[in-house]
Each structure stands twice: as structure tokens, then as C-alpha cells.
TrEMBL record:
The keyword Chaperone does not apply. It holds the Pfam family Nitroreductase. Keywords: Oxidoreductase. Coiled coil: none annotated. This is Nitroreductase. Belongs to the nitroreductase family. GO terms for molecular function: oxidoreductase activity. The keyword Oxidoreductase applies. Transmembrane segments: none annotated.
């Protein structure tokens, strides 16, 4: 797939309903994407990340069960995506579509061919602002998603599994001093490619020299 940097950055979408649950994803392709992800920046060049790639059907199903449980609790809460911007009919409709697709993914998470969990080594979570910690993992996770997109793979950024982080850590043998930061379902996608999403105008969120 030949794609410009601007197109790659503006068309890498969260793919949920269009993940192909029947087509195997070669592990070598996932490795290629992770090799690119390892070029991302980390604080002090610490490179404390770890990547757990789950292809085993039983383990994927177990993670999917935990994820679905977490989704149900989130969906029923007042903070779920469908409750945002209820006073704006246009944005409310978009949020409902997001919620519907997220619900679909929750139902099928355990069927996605590859689940990638991005983790980071840390003795204990720091107090206060944790941007320095997660900033040494999350850019690499986004790089993985961009690399996957350029290879015809769909992904989605998810973190609802973290409600069951300890259970999933036990399932996968993740050490106690390694924390999970993101779960990225990975599969080929169905249908045509993707376009840029509608976003807020830049001038509504841009502050130059002063808020």
C-alpha cells in the first residue's frame, strides 16, 4: 500500500465493525509493525516497553470476556461515549455511532485474530501527573497502529480491559512490575479504505501565547 504521510495520519481510524474476524493475520506482519513502533521516543531513551501479542484462541476469548464485562459497566455509566454532547444534535448522533461500533467490538473482541497489549516496566505508579510514564509507551502504540494501517490492517485504541488488568496479567504471565497501557485489536478490515473524520475547527482549540 502506497500512502502519503498526511493521508496516513488523517485516515488511521479506530476500526471496530469492519475488522475481519475470519482472516488470519501473519505474526511476521505484526512483528514488522512493532519494529517500527520501537522507533518511537521514550523519556531518557528508557525503552521500558513490552508488547504482548495474543493469538491463542482460548486466551483471546478470555480477554474478550473481561473486555465485554468492562464494556457493559462503562456503557451503563454516565460517562460513556453515547452520553457526551447530548445537547448538540450533530455531535450526539456521531457519539451514538461511536458507541454502537464500540459495543460491536466489545461483543467480538475475543474473536479478533490478534490482540496486542502495550505494557511498560515500572516499579510502582507515580503520584500525580503520570504523563512522563505513559508518554514513554503510548506514542509507540500509535506508531504501531499507523504501521498496521499502511499494511492494510485495521486497529482500535482501547483500554477498557484495564478494569481487569490483574486478571489479564495472571492469564498472560505478565510480571507484577509491568503495567498495561493499551489493548490494540488487530485484523484485516473489510470494505473500502477510510477518510478523515470530522473534527472541531482548529481555532476552537488553539491557544497562541495565552489561553
Amino acid at each position: 500500500m502506497t500512502i502519503s504521510a498526511d493521508e496516513l495520519l488523517t485516515t488511521t481510524r479506530s476500526v471496530r465493525k469492519r475488522l475481519d474476524l475470519t482472516r488470519p493475520v501473519p505474526l511476521e506482519l505484526v512483528r514488522e509493525c512493532l519494529e517500527i513502533a520501537l522507533q518511537a521516543p521514550t523519556g531518557g531513551n528508557s525503552q521500558g516497553w513490552h508488547w504482548v501479542v495474543v493469538t491463542d484462541a482460548d486466551k483471546r476469548a478470555a480477554i474478550g470476556d473481561y473486555y465485554q464485562r468492562s464494556w457493559r459497566r462503562y456503557y451503563e455509566s454516565g460517562g460513556s461515549a453515547r452520553r457526551l454532547f447530548e445537547d448538540d444534535p450533530v455531535r450526539a448522533a456521531t457519539q451514538q455511532r461511536v458507541s454502537d461500533s464500540a459495543g460491536h467490538l466489545a461483543e467480538h473482541m475475543g474473536e479478533v485474530p490478534v490482540l496486542v497489549i502495550g505494557c511498560i516496566s515500572v516499579p510502582g505508579l507515580p503520584q500525580g501527573n503520570q504523563a512522563g510514564l505513559w508518554g514513554s509507551l503510548l506514542p509507540a502504540a500509535w506508531s504501531y497502529m499507523l504501521a498496521a494501517r499502511s499494511r492494510g490492517l485495521g486497529t482500535a485504541w482501547t483500554s477498557l480491559h484495564l478494569a481487569y488488568e490483574s486478571e489479564i496479567a495472571e492469564l498472560l504471565g505478565i510480571p507484577g512490575d509491568v503495567r498495561q497501557g493499551v489493548l490494540i485489536p488487530t485484523a484485516y478490515y473489510t470494505g473500502e479504505t477510510f477518510g478523515p473524520a470530522k473534527r472541531q475547527p482548529l481555532d476552537e482549540v488553539l491557544h497562541v501565547d495565552h489561553w
